[in-house]
Amino acid sequence: xxxxxxxxxxxxxxxxxxxxxxxxxxxxxxxxxxxxxxxxxxxxxxxxxxxxxxxxxxxxxxxxxxxxxxxxxxxxxxxxxxxxxxxxxxxxxxxxxxxxxxxxxxxxxxxxxxxxxxxxxxxxxxxxxxxxxxxxxxxxxxxxxxxxxxxxxxxxxxxxxxxxxxxxxxxxxxxxxxxxxxxxxxxxxxxxxxxxxxxxxxxxxxxxxxxxxxxxxxxxxxxxxxxxxxxxxxxxxxxxxxxxxxxxxxxxxxxxxxxxxxxxxxxxxxxxxxxxxxxxxxxxxxxxxxxxxxxxxxxxxxxxxxxxxxxxxxxxxxxxxxxxxxxxxxxxxxxxxxxxxxxxxxxxxxxxxxxxxxxxxxxxxxxxxxxxxxxxxxxxxxxxxxxxxxxxxxxxxxxxxxxxxxxxxxxxxxxxxxxxxxxxxxxxxxxxxxxxxxxxxxxxxxxxxx
Amino acid sequence: xxxxxxxxxxxxxxxxxxxxxxxxxxxxxxxxxxxxxxxxxxxxxxxxxxxxxxxxxxxxxxxxxxxxxxxxxxxxxxxxxxxxxxxxxxxxxxxxxxxxxxxxxxxxxxxxxxxxxxxxxxxxxxxxxxxxxxxxxxxxxxxxxxxxxxxxxxxxxxxxxxxxxxxxxxxxxxxxxxxxxxxxxxxxxxxxxxxxxxxxxxxxxxxxxxxxxxxxxxxxxxxxxxxxxxxxxxxx
Lengths: 450, 236
Known about the structure:
heterodimer; A: mainly beta; 12% helix; 42% strand; elongated; B: alpha+beta; CATH 3.30.1330.60; 2 domains; four-stranded mixed β-sheet
């Protein structure tokens, strides 16, 4: 909850957003904002996104499209409220030098986005935008991008990232993609395919044809590769898929099932489970040398490993203590300690890209939850619940989680609908991510532009 | 080969144990083993042979089938049409002449010895587990003893044991659980002298439910390990 006195947007939004979760940062002297950090909710910031202006009809259309995508990105984050453009007083054409701020204050905009779209002689699209603080009457940021016109969506996401970053103080996550498992058919004959799309659901395409069962895809942090589990000829093994070439390669030649693969933060290794004689332990495979290394030796189930972003630790799921819980160990397999001690069962730990939290799935009294806790197990917070929610994945800025939710099935085979959902780390702004078919096992990409 | 079935006095366990089936039929315990009746064309059925004996065998088998078939109602529902539909689709194993007296329906003939069909119907291709359990309950062990005996009779046949879990767990943990279950079955069969090299395992976790419905009955039927003959039709 925020009360913003309309003196200046100045840079308080960063404080608002960060403050919703953590410490209230020192505010710029010219701003007056009070924040109740106990609720963790943020009143969305009113922002006016005008169409990028152009005198060229084609560029004008692209400019309008870009503005629409920018606005949608910002709104979906739950932190911004885009002001209806029907209320705009000043037109894009007559504010290219400098906005008439009183017109924007009148409609309660605190932030304003203006810009230009130009088609250059070589056919490339040049876009520049400016973000204005309406009350302080000054530019907060301004950037220009040049690309092919076909690339306009990425340009839009980069602009949205830039605005988000300037106003929240955190890195944006709009210029990213999501790989997930597309599902169709009744639950007992469901066809699953790897699919990839932009984080807003656009540019959707299938990567596999559904002949083989595929599960749990995860992005490489450094290359255009995905590691995942596939069943080929009744054998379940971890594979690597190259997004650019479409090549699929089995990961190592192990005598048992390899599953739950995930890249190390430097992209040099995959950590995964290997099941031998019914017993699952955690191994790493060096992608350069192809050497594998065993990290756990327990007769219990050890699975769902996930590295900390500094690569020094691994969190994983194990029933070594008698029930399914979350553990953390050093990256060499030493110093294993349990971190989950709440009621119920804990699963699918995934380390935040910021390192400060571990997301998980929890099962308690027949209900599934998505939650987060600190790496020492303290500060557990539950963000979503349902009959079945599972498989959290982090946006690269560590502020937003995506997961999937599956409905109950009836005895005649109806139901079982599975969809992707995203939720803010505060537990607010839960929304469905639209996919052409059912969706599960989402994995968020790193930023497309490092 | 199949002569032992009708003629031999050393009747194998699965053919003699009507009582097992009956007791199974009366129990609707969630954790009980039930013989799944789902007929398919026998991939390895032999043709020919003394018809008369076969018919006698088929009568005995019918008793067995009828007994074994009385599995929890939910199973039939879940299988989508259940045993009756599957029987209809199976096609007759005995070529009944046009004038054959309809003492018994010819399509209910016993599966050929050594066939996939026999393994599924009379031996029992699957066993069941408690929630988050891998323990082999007494009835489970009886089924596996029949499997072992059958596998020892047909040493050329290899199997893949598919381990499954219900939908009430997370995906990767359930893969581990299914692997454990498949391996528990494998170990039991190996202990009964089935050559380990004949048995492969694969876990499908919660990916291949056989019973539909988000309820305890369906979950109990889905927590299973299914022994599937290599090269035979895939049955979940």
